[in-house]
């Protein structure tokens, strides 16, 4: 159920804020026109933008945003759909585990209106880490709680203990353990994971069939959603089961404010999926929002962040050569979803083509093509 939060008496009305912003634009601060698959909704929201695997949740909950729902509440409801989907191996229930066979989840939320946030990392056996992240924001003076403390905090607030490792993910994990080396005493299965076990299963919105889950397609398993209301409020959330087969305790960008997500009612919102370490090192989501604040379009902001990631990878390749190919192009994937207060948005990709999800008054929930930096 979407909750509507009352506006305090001393708070600047968001329509008044947008009016002031429009006046500033008339004096020469207008943003440049967006290129590519961006919205032309100059009046602002309601808009949802996020990763492709957010499309199911958008189809269920976009109308709540249209009806006046709080952006953060709607964004959380959107990602909860995928968190609870046992056929999606990338997030939450049924997610791919770490190298010990344990599903460890990370999530964060941010409210652009209050500019407050909450996050959990390495939380186990809790179905909806995004809801726990909101509890951290609303019920504590902290920004992040991790590990056993996050689990205990969730249980204290009524979240039930849930077994997240389901049979398809368990079989894939065991197959990974048995094939990762020919120098140990484990023998690979014969045959490999039966096709019927994986039928209908997806990772990051893609069918498992045909993916090399142990090599180049090793999933990062993340979902992001940013929301903009008709009165200019913004909220966002990112939730993940993290990099498949990761070292236990590894935390990516998803729960880190400024890396996996960031929003500000004075600028816009952004989130990331893909190689978390790259998003952390460039403070990618914060950088994108600050570029919106400076007047860049969502597409230009996202592309500039990806250019910085490229330069960063080339520098790091001096000690980690596998980060770039012979042409200096990054060998990993990273995507950003950027949303401006005027309703324009963009989805950008570092290297690989793909899609992202969006919904606005110009069209209901739909998948759009990402703009690729290194095509």
CATH fold type: Glutamine Phosphoribosylpyrophosphate, subunit 1, domain 1
How is the largest sheet built, in terms of strand order?
A: 4-3-2-8-7-1-13-14
Question: What CATH architecture would you give?
Answer: 4-Layer Sandwich
CATH class: Alpha Beta
- Major sheet: size, sense and barrel closure? 8 strands, mixed
Strand content: 15-25%
Give an overview of the whole structure:
With 375 residues, the chain is α+β, with helices and mostly antiparallel strands. Helices cover 30% and strands 22% of the residues. It contains ten helices and 15 strands. The protein has helices at 14-29, 55-66, 71-83, 129-139, 147-156, 167-179, 195-198, 276-281, 284-293, 298-316; strands spanning 47-51, 104-111, 116-124, 144-146, 202-203, 206-207, 222-228, 234-240, 261-264, 268-274, 334-340, 345-349, 355-360, 363-369, 371-372. A hairpin with a 4-residue loop joins strand 11 (334-340) and strand 12 (345-349). Mean pLDDT is 86; it is low at 1-42.
């Amino acid at each position: 159920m979407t909750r509507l939060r009352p506006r305090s008496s001393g708070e600047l009305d968001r329509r008044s804020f947008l009016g002031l912003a429009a006046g500033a634009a008339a004096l020469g601060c207008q943003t440049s026109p967006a290129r590519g698959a961006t919205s032309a909704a100059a009046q602002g929201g309601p808009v949802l933008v996020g990763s492709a695997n957010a499309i199911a949740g958008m189809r269920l909950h976009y109308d709540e945003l249209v009806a006046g729902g709080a952006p953060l509440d709607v964004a959380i409801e959107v990602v909860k759909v995928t968190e609870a989907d046992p056929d999606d191996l990338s997030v939450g229930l049924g997610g791919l585990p770490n190298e010990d066979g344990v599903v460890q989840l990370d999530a964060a939320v941010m409210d652009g209106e209050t500019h407050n946030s909450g996050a959990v990392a390495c939380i186990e056996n809790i179905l909806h880490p995004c809801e726990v992240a909101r509890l951290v924001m609303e019920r504590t003076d902290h920004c992040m709680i991790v590990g056993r403390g996050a689990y205990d905090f969730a249980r204290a607030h009524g979240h039930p203990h849930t077994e997240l490792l389901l049979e398809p993910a368990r079989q894939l994990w065991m197959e990974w353990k048995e094939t990762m080396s020919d120098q140990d005493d484990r023998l690979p299965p014969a045959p490999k994971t039966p096709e019927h076990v994986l039928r209908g299963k997806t990772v990051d919105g893609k069918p498992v069939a045909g993916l090399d889950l142990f090599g180049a397609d090793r999933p990062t398993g993340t979902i992001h959603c940013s929301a903009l209301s008709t009165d200019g409020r913004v909220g966002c959330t990112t939730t993940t089961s993290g990099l498949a087969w990761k070292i236990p305790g590894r935390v990516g960008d998803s729960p880190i404010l400024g890396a996996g997500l960031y929003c500000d009612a004075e600028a816009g919102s952004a989130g990331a999926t893909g190689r978390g370490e790259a998003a952390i090192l460039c403070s990618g989501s914060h950088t994108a929002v600050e570029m919106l604040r400076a007047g860049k379009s969502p597409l230009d902001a996202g592309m500039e962040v990806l250019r910085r990631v490229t330069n960063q990878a080339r520098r790091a390749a001096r000690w980690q050569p596998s980060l770039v190919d012979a042409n200096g192009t990054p060998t990993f994937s990273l995507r950003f979803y950027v949303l401006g207060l005027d309703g324009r948005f963009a989805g950008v990709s570092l290297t690989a083509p793909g899609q992202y999800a969006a919904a606005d008054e110009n069209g209901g929930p739909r998948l759009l093509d990402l703009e690729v930096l290194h095509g």
